[in-house]
Structure formats: C-alpha cells, structure tokens
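In this section we walk through a basic example: taking a raw amino acid sequence and producing a predicted 3D structure, encoded as discrete structure tokens. The instruction is simple. Fold the sequence below.
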Amino acid sequence: MPTETSRRSLAPAEIGDRLRAQFGDDVQDVVDQFGHAVITVAPDRYREIAEFLRDDPDLAFDYYDFTAGVDLGEGGFEVITHLYSTAHKHNARLKVGCGRENPTCPSISGVYPGANWGERETWELFGIHFEGHPHLVKLLLPEPFEGHPLRKDFELMSRVAKPWPGAPEGEEAEDDE
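The resulting token sequence is shown next.
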C-alpha cells in the first residue's frame, strides 16, 4: 500500500534526510538547486546509493537521464549523474569526487543499464575509469586518438603557437641579382 509520502514529490531536503538516515556521513552534502536535490556522495557508496534511490518506493528514481564529468582543475574530477522519478516527479543529481591522478568511479551500469553509454562517453572524454563497467570502449573518437579532449590540460592544436612560415612583417627578403 502506498505511503503518504509516496503520493507526492519529495522536496530536496526530504530526499537528503532519507539518504542521510540510511547512509550517514557517506552523504556528504545535499543542496537544493532549482528544485532538484544535488547530492554529493562518497565514491565507495555511490552504487549502493543509486540502488537505494531506485528501489525505495517513496523515492522510486526509475529514470536514468545522464552521466557527465567535470574537470575541476587541481581539485580533480567530478562525476555527475541525473536521475528522475516518473512516479513522483522529483529529480536528483548524484555527484562523486574523483582524484586528479588516475580518476576512478564505481559503475552504475548494472543498476541503470542506460548508464553504460554515459559512462563510456565520460571515460573517453575525461579519462575517468568506471570500475566494474562491462565494456569501456570508445564511442565518439577514432581508435588511434590519444588523450581526453574535455580535460582542461588537453592541448588543442589551435592553441599551440606555431612559427609564421613567411618573413616577419615589415622585413622584405633581399633579391639576389
């Protein structure tokens, strides 16, 4: 039988309270951004929290929207996953911090099959490895491509200073006659 809370959309603070009651300090932060719960979680509990969000009947986050990466520079990387409840009409974004060197994050592709592609794209463009992902292969870039083009330290060819092929402006080459 549905509970009173299962008949309505939960406010971001209520979603955060439920998660903190279940996971304690592994729910590091909960912020209300435009009516969406933005939840920063400990990396080692990310998958378990995603399962709880999906399986708890009052939360019922049954729709996986996307996974993306953010390069925070010296602060490392962040994985952001957006979920939605079609039954309750509430939203949540999970944020997981990853280190700068060899960034890793648990895969939730076993929880939300749609995450398979989002994690592959994030791995390819940011170099964040998803532990437990069944098939990390490139989606967008050709196989011989090296590097991760959405990283801040990725060197774009258009930013590389190249010597001008002609003479410096104002200097004309002398004619040998």
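Looking at the output, two observations stand out. The longest strand covers residues 63-71. Residues 109 and 115 are 5 Å apart (CA to CA). In the next section we compare this with other chains.
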